[in-house]
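ok so for the tutorial part 2 we go from a plain amino acid sequence to predicted structure tokens. step 1 is just haveing the sequence, like this:
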Amino acid sequence: MSRFAALFAFAVLVFGSLAAEAAPAQRGGPLLRLRQASGFVPRPLAKSLDCRVYADHVAIERNFAGVKVEETRAMTIDTGAIYSLIGEAKKAKLETTRGPVDGPFIAYEGFLILPADGLETVTLSSLNGGTGEMISNPSESAQILKNVLDGLCQ
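step 2 — the prediction. this is what the tokens look like for a chain of 154 residues:
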């Protein structure tokens, strides 16, 4: 291999990895998401939350029985650490159990960028009060990411 070819291959490797790290922020997709809904309750008690964590901000939408509130907060987050944790959480075997129905809906999710400009959803935990299905991700990474969401989505 010539020096030029070796240098070119090295440049592609370095700049390609930098572009891959920058891609999620450039594509604008969320890194993490927390969704909650109160389930089957009287209208005065109905409320929901949709919180999305991006590389540079947190977007929170709340709904209180039809009263909508939107909030956006600027912040920075270590996207490399977040993507690493999501990748580790993806490897865990999800555990599914049954719970009560007519209860709340809660979903903690992470997102990985796919090569074809798509997003892969990684379940950190989920409770579907409509069906009673509870999905948990037993990994430490999932718990750390849930803590991040709980902290940022307050």
